[in-house]
Amino acid sequence: MSYNIAVDGPAGAGKSTIARAVAKELNIIYVDTGAMYRAMGLYMLRQGINPEDEQGVTAHCEEADIALKYEDGVQVVCLNGENVNDYIRTEEVGAATSRISVLPAVRRRVTALQKELASKVDCIMDGRDIGTCVLPNADVKIYLTASSAVRARRRYDELTARGQDCDLTRIQADMEERDYRDMHREISPLCQAEDAVLVDSSDLTPRQVIEKILELCKR
Fold first, then answer.
1. Fewest CB atoms within 10 A around its CB: which of 82, 97, 117, 126?
2. What is the structure's pLDDT at 118?
3. Cα separation, 186 vs 184, whole angstroms
């Protein structure tokens, strides 16, 4: 039996950063589920397919071959054989991803890969519906959140550090709109699993959040 940890929460809550650190400390695999969906969003944008076009997205999602691998200890997201780590973290891709990730065909494909991975290895996954849908029997479930203002500031700092020109007010507005879509989508909406532990990181350092999760795993 594999050991699985599920981390869910809204955009910008720091799920990926925390999950990576926990995986390293526990020596287990980190599966970046959001990156897999972002790769699908990137594919649709590159193909000129409107993320709002459900028929178009459904018809083409099977063409996107998405895989995760490790190179020199770094997780690489491959889209049809290309390393797309440098392209999937933009706000444009994030917005497109939020729209296509609600579609049944997209979710079926990505979820199947996630379940297969978790059945074979000890891992930690982060996303929107890991504890509720992808890994309902996970050994530990965390719902990681923070205020929209704090999350927007973190994203702003991250993007400006990369040299991207962005607007804090717009980032927060987009984030709140994305939260609403994720929480009210018909398929696998973002919500806290009944047996998940709520962790609000608004006033916590990343190290404090990591320690909280490690303590839950020890229990």
1. 82
2. 87
3. 6
Residue pLDDT, tens place only, 22-68? 999 998 889 888 899 999 999 999 999 999 999 999 999 989 988 88
DSSP annotation string for the chain: ---EEEEE--TTSSHHHHHHHHHHHHT-EEEEHHHHHHHHHHHHHHTT--TT-HHHHHHHGGG--EEEEEETTEEEEEETTEE-TTTTTSHHHHHHHHHHTTSHHHHHHHHHHHHHHHHHS-EEEEESSIIIII-TT-SEEEEEE--HHHHHHHHHHHHHHTT----HHHHHHHHHHHHHHHHH-SSS-----TTPEEEE-TT--HHHHHHHHHHHHH-
Q: Which residue has the tokens 């074979």?
A: 120
Nearest CA to 79 out of 65, 100, 60 is that of 65
Both tokens of 181, joined, read 């879509």
Q: Could you tell me which residues are beta bridge partners of residue 24?
A: none
